[in-house]
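Project outcomes to date are best conveyed with an example. Our students and postdoctoral researchers have been running inverse folding experiments weekly, and each run begins with a structure described purely in tokens. The record below, which covers 233 residues, was selected by the lab manager from last quarter's runs and is presented without edits.
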């Protein structure tokens, strides 16, 4: 069976979050062997870094949303033609900045892309209430989205053992004066809107540092899906 390989990544403008050095070559070296069919990208701007990134991953079809000049810009790169892209921006102000949403279909003859709507977003990094307002305004359910990808800055409680949760989430956030751990967004997506967490479905036993996608030891990046054709992924 032909697989369809997709991923999501926050590239932080191709700067390593730890030292702010350009890391585009490192990212390409990690992602290229995966032979991806589609990648959703956050914190991207329309420049040579973006075009070189897509070129080296052999993803010729690209779309950057209306936030292409914004630090929080998002984009999609695909092996297959991008059809009818739709861009949306939050209509309200947030301390964490404007946020964006892209949805599109894909052309081509791969069975996975038929009658599918793909979407990418990047939600607020400061406040769960703003994240909830943003995702509700973007309304992936209202847009009939089948695959929702992106850095959602959301937490899932089942990702963490009790000890890890207390030490690496509760205590770290208290010391840093950040928001307390919240799970409302992940609950909304998976319980109320019936999206399924692709990573947890494939890796149900993994927890703690094994699931981390951020430098703070938490998982905040997701691929959520509603589809009967998941076995093509």
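After processing, the design step wrote out the following sequence:
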């Amino acid at each position: 069976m032909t697989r369809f390989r997709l991923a999501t990544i926050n590239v932080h403008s191709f700067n390593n979050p730890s030292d702010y050095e350009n890391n585009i070559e490192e990212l390409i070296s990690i992602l290229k062997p995966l032979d991806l069919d589609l990648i959703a990208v956050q914190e991207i701007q329309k420049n040579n870094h973006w075009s070189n990134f897509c070129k080296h991953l052999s993803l010729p079809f690209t779309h950057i949303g209306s936030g292409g000049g914004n630090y929080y810009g998002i984009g999609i790169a695909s092996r297959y033609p991008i059809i009818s892209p739709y861009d949306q921006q939050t209509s309200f102000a947030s301390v964490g900045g404007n946020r964006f949403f892209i949805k599109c279909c894909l052309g081509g003859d791969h069975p996975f892309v038929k009658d599918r709507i793909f979407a990418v977003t990047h939600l607020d990094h400061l406040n769960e209430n703003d994240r909830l307002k943003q995702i509700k305004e973007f309304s992936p359910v209202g847009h009939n989205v089948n695959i929702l990808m992106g850095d959602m800055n959301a937490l899932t409680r089942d990702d963490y053992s009790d000890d890890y949760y207390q030490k690496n989430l509760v205590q770290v956030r208290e010391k840093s004066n950040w928001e307390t751990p919240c799970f409302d967004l992940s609950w909304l997506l998976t319980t109320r809107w019936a999206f399924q967490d692709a990573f947890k479905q494939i890796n149900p036993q993994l927890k703690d540092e094994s699931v981390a996608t951020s430098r703070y030891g938490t998982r905040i990046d997701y691929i959520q899906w509603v589809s009967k054709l998941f076995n093509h992924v």
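DSSP finds six helices and ten strands in the chain. Residues 136 and 142 are 9 Å apart (CA to CA). The training component of this project remains on track.
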